[in-house]
Predict the 3D structure of the following.
Amino acid sequence: MNDLNLEMFIGAQRDSERSRYQILGELQKIRREFSHNRIYPPLTDLIELYSTLKKITEGSEGLKREMPKRITGIDLKNNRLVYEWFELGDDQIRAIEDLIHWSLPHIIAAIEEGQTIFNFVDNNLKLEEVGILPSYIEEGYLLLPEIRQDLVHVIRYEISIFAGADQQYRNLKTTSIRTFPLSALEFSPGNIKLEMIRSNRDLPNPATYFFATDLDFPFNETILPVAKRKLLRQIYS
């Protein structure tokens, strides 16, 4: 996400006014992306940064956890690197925290702008099941139009589940298989599903979903990531 990251906030200990100017400049770059309806990865990165900054505002220990670290040695017994946090004085910590509190409303405003685009795209992607779904739907195909290129992308997906510290997470991996002309007379989601069954024998009865849309938005930066999130909601609703 451009250069808007925690390092820019830590720079407040040296020059708070310069840091504010840089943060506003980076947010302007992100908003420029949003003005062209390109929301990923900037929106995800902004949300992650906001979450980190909120944790820091919980107290000085939160700031210490997120501070850059330097390697000071190797623990051979436990086979791991030994790190040391950079030490900051009270005035330096206060300068960083003041910058964070100042920046949060600006970051929230940018997130809301990106979220508005996300919601609009999400509402204009109509998810349809193609044929009868099998009992196993954690792997299959999604058919996604790219209007400006007059194409429909056939994308194979696979969902994996992994455990975090306090909950389980789902990851949707996608691989582009091929494309078909969207305006071809023979085009239909059902025909594409049959073609994929014939050409990929390892999925004899694949779960297949088609996204109907008229949106002429950037494909990789907006349409595809929104569709992936919508598919996950559909499968686990």
About this structure: The chain has a mean pLDDT of 86.
